[in-house]
Give the backbone structure.
Amino acid sequence: MDWLDEVKWDAHGLVPVIAQERGTNDVLMFAWMNREALARTAELGRAVYFSRSRGRLWFKGEESGHVQTVHEIRLDCDNDVVLLQVTQLGHEPGIACHTGRHSCFFQRYENGAWKAAEPVLKDPQTIYSK
C-alpha cells in the first residue's frame, strides 16, 4: 500500500495540516494539503500546501520568501491530520503569517474580544509588494 493511501482525505481530497516550529514547538499555521502537496513536501523537504482560494498547489514562501524547511512529517492517530515540524526561513526568518507575524495564531480571547497577542515583525505591504 502506498503511504499516501493511509491518509484519510476529506470529500475534497484534502487533509488539514499544522506547521509546528522545530525547537520552540510554536504552532505557526494551519493549512490544507492534497495528495500531490503531501507527496511534494516529502520529496522536496519543503512545505507545499494546497491553496483552496487559489485552487492550486502553494509552495510556502513563493510570494513572501518565507519558506518552511520540513524536518519531520507526522500523522495523527485517526490518520486525518498531518503535523509538520519545520524551520521557518526567509528574508525575515521567523515570519510564518501573511500578517507579518511569527504565527498565524496571534489573536487571544480576552474579556469578550479577540486581541492581538503578538507583534507584527514586518509590515505585510512590504512583504507582498515585490
Remarks:
- The chain has one domain: 13-127.
- The mean pLDDT is 94.
- Residues 35-44 form the longest helix (10 residues).
